[in-house]
Amino acid sequence: MDLHDFFDAIYPLTSNSRQAIERIVTEKTYKKQEVIQPIGSRCKTVYFIKNGCARIFYFKDGHDITEHFAFKKDIIVRAESLFTGKPTSKGIQAINDTNVLKIDALSLFRLYDVHHDIERLFRLIFEKEYVNTVKRIESFQFKSAKERYLDLLNTTEIVQKIPLKYIASYLGITQVSLSRIRAEVR
Amino acid sequence: MDLHDFFDAIYPLTSNSRQAIERIVTEKTYKKQEVIQPIGSRCKTVYFIKNGCARIFYFKDGHDITEHFAFKKDIIVRAESLFTGKPTSKGIQAINDTNVLKIDALSLFRLYDVHHDIERLFRLIFEKEYVNTVKRIESFQFKSAKERYLDLLNTTEIVQKIPLKYIASYLGITQVSLSRIRAEVR
DNA sequence: CTAGTTATTTATCATTTGTTAATTTTTATT
DNA sequence: AATAAAAATTAACAAATGATAAATAACTAG
């Protein structure tokens, strides 16, 4: 299970804690386009992507908007629900065929009480996610759509694997506008 | 010290842990406009605002951009530095006369090892901040500047206390554009 | 209170992005 | 390979926002 490689790179667990985690992890495969967690639900699972990719999405004025992408070896959660217990208007969907490890959130939170190192590990994991989110805000403040697109080209594998329509809304622009930007860049 | 009221509302500490925290807290007052942490520095302090308000800011193409506001009873940190140890191109500035409690970050992180409840408390505090940040991204994706401004009017005290030029960049628009929006709304 | 500074508004014009619709390209299915 | 369906591009025009400059209003220091 390469989940533990991921963990080890952040904060290695005792073998006791590893075993405790393994007992609450299950594996699952989703087909391309399949909804992993539906809009309106509560986030009760932390997903680790073994293979494939997924997105967090929601609808605004009838438009499908992608808020976040996750790839191989990424964690994906709907933070605004996981950390508040409230339902969220966002869902998670597999973009391509995707193989995930599911960590049950309630069980995980219970492990926090017993295994200090597990709480620490996940604190560090989500601090990283937090930092990524802060950087994303920067990209929206006073960067043009073109700059945001070029940043994306440089820093991620997104553009290779993901339909443009998802990328456009992720950048906060329409599909047509992204097409125009791509034409300029070429 | 109303820091503990803030803590208690999130996760009450043992009296032992409270005392440990108090030993690493100091109080300080900043004058209006005074820089609390300069651009380019590392974030080594967690600030709790007892009174007044502050902002996180940076420069982009010579423009002063406000990324974040914090008010009475808010925590303020430069997450991308605090959680990575790297310097950041952002600074913190008092907007009005501001009274803060400073928690030394290194000392705090050391307390995490000994006081499980302190680590938990700050995990929960920063999870909340993370959720706020996620919500802010939402506001940038496919909300018009006018919508973002109206949201701000409804949900915060920002507009009462803060110069428009700061609010404009916070919304991701120019001062002139914000003025125009305000004229429409009236 | 006054002069000087800073913040805000207004106006004009340029640029970017949105909207709609038609066209081409790509992908999926048989 | 042929067809249908979905995705991406292009074009034309509309709306939102940026940039610059000038005018007004609010604030600050003496």
Properties at a glance:
alpha+beta; Jelly Rolls; 48% helix; 186 residues; 4-stranded antiparallel sheet; homodimer; DNA-binding; 8 strands
Protein model, in words:
Two copies of one chain form a homodimer. Chain A has 186 residues and is of the alpha+beta class. Chain A has one domain: Jelly Rolls. Chain A has nine helices and eight strands. Chain A has helices at 3-10, 15-22, 79-82, 105-114, 116-140, 145-155, 158-161, 164-171, 175-185; strands at 25-30, 35-37, 45-51, 53-60, 63-71, 75-76, 91-94, 98-104. The first copy, chain A, has a four-stranded antiparallel beta sheet. In chain A, strands 2-7-4-5 form a four-stranded antiparallel beta sheet. In chain A, strand 4 and strand 5 (63-71) form a beta hairpin. In chain A, helix 4 (105-114) crosses helix 5 and helix 8 packs across helix 9. The longest helix of chain A has 25 residues, at 116-140. The first copy, chain A, is elongated. The mean pLDDT of chain A is 94. Chains A and B meet through strand 5 and helix 5 of A and strand 5 and helix 5 of B. The structure holds a DNA duplex (30 and 30 nucleotides).
What proportion of the residues of chain A is helical, as a percent range? 40-55%
What count of structural domains of chain A?
A: 1
| Count of separate DSSP helical elements of chain A | 9
Distance between the termini of chain A: 42 Å
Question: What summary fits the major beta sheet of chain A?
Answer: 4 strands, antiparallel
What is the ordering of alpha helices and beta strands of chain A? HHEEEEEEHEEHHHHHH
Largest interface: A-B, 33 and 33 residues
- Give the name of the CATH architecture of chain A: Sandwich
Structural class of the secondary structure composition of chain A? alpha+beta
What overall form of chain A do the CA principal axes indicate? Answer: elongated
Could you tell me the strand content of chain A as a percent range? Answer: 15-25%
CATH superfamily of chain A: Jelly Rolls
Spatial order of strands in the largest sheet of chain A: 1-8-3-6
